[in-house]
Amino acid sequence: MLLHRVTKLAASRPSRLLRRLKTTLATDTNLQEKVVTLCRHRGFVFPGSDIYGGLANSFDYGPLGVQMKKNIQDAWWKHFVQSRTDCVGLDSSVILNSKVWEASGHIGNFTDPMTVCKSCNSRSRADKLIENKSDMTGIPDAGGLTCEEIDALLAQHKISCPTCAYINFQHVVTTMRRRLPFGVGQMGKSFRNEISPGHFLFRTREFEQLELQYFCHPTDSDNWYTLLPHVVEPALGTGRVMLAMLLDAYDEEEVNGRYGCGHRKGGDLMMDGRQRTVLRLHPDIAPYKFAVLPLQSKGVLAEKANEIYVQLAKLASCDFDVTQSIGKRYRRQDEIGTPFCVTVDFDTLEDGSVTVRNRDSMDQVRVPVATLLSGGWTWQP
Questions:
Q1: Most confidently modeled range among 114-118, 131-135, 142-146, 313-317
Q2: Is beta strand 290-294 parallel, antiparallel or unpaired with respect to 318-320?
Q3: Topology match between the domains 2-110+159-248 and 256-372
Q4: Across all residues in the chain, what is the average pLDDT?
Q5: How far from chain centre, in Å, is Cα 288?
Q6: What is d(CA 112, CA 109) in angstroms, rounded to the nearest whole number?
Q7: CATH superfamily placement of domain 256-372
């Protein structure tokens, strides 16, 4: 599961995830273009302010995108907050008193060195120029500064993160009756004056963050640094995690000898040499876990399928699709990453079972409707 790998990376060293994602974006532009096209075509992400000419580097999450983003946030929340007895949640204000930013050192010291070209007057961040040159000249990243130099500057200017977990620390201690050490997790929107936005969702001016801050007593802090030397503030950008998962899950494969399986009533046909696009997302992350597909768009099959859909939607995110042939609907669900398609056919009316198709293997099994709606069903080929 990519999210598990992502959370492990974030818990150890967040920059490692970013470096891996940067490498993919820099070396495989064709993959990025395909993912962007799929996202716009299938309702994951739309250009912001599109009907009024758009706004550069602004994106709206469509129905599938917002559901996938919520699934990522839910998985993060469960991993870092809900499943831990030493962590609590927080949802703080975005607009803060200016004194907060003064106390954090951001107003006085938090700046990005800029360069201005005398010929074209274009502006660039100095550290980005150095980063682009680093492979050829041997100059290190991050503006040519070592970690020791960066740490020295942070200590010299006493720059700290101004997030509201610090501001609300005493409130959390008082209301939740917590004793150190404990963590505070929160997620919400952030904004940054990004000079060089780009790479789709990777670098934007408006983004959402998932952040956990862990507090320990000052006299005991050295012990925690010894145990977890890299964990200071595990934070993830939701858009970046989503983009990483989409790039990782995107796949194109030749369908040789079948499209799904040979069960004719399930709607699968022989399609030699045809290519299908698949998003191999984990079921917990995919926008829809199930798609209910009646063989007929009207009549008793559609009515029965709708009954199943209403009940199944109470258990998991679910889609109901009646347009076009069953084969095209399978392919459409493959493209948006739906793990399981539930086909309602004429046998359903007789024996009370449905055909469940697996997205990745395209295998199908018959499953009683009662078993599917019990909430405990798992795929068993």
A1: 313-317
A2: parallel
A3: no
A4: 73
A5: 14
A6: 9
A7: Anticodon-binding domain (3.40.50.800)
Q: Is the pTM of this model over 0.90?
A: no
CA atoms within 13 A on the CB side of 218: 0
The upper half-sphere exposure of residue 283, i.e. CA atoms within 13 Å in the direction of its Cβ, equals 13
Residue written as token pair 């936005």: 197
* Domain residue ranges of the chain, discontinuous segments joined by +: 2-110+159-248, 256-372
Report yes or no: 356 and 333 within 8 Å, Cβ to Cβ: no
Radius of gyration of the chain measured on its C-alpha atoms = 25
Q: What is the pLDDT of residues 242-281, one digit of tens each?
A: 888 898 899 998 876 554 443 434 344 434 447 899 999 9
Give domain 2-110+159-248's CATH superfamily: Bira Bifunctional Protein; Domain 2 (3.30.930.10)
Could you read off the pLDDT of 14-69 as tens digits, one per residue?
A: 455 556 666 766 666 788 889 989 988 898 988 888 777 877 777 788 889 889 99
Buried b (16+ CB within 10 A) or exposed e, 332-362: bbbbbbbbbbbbbbebbeeeebbbbbbbeeb
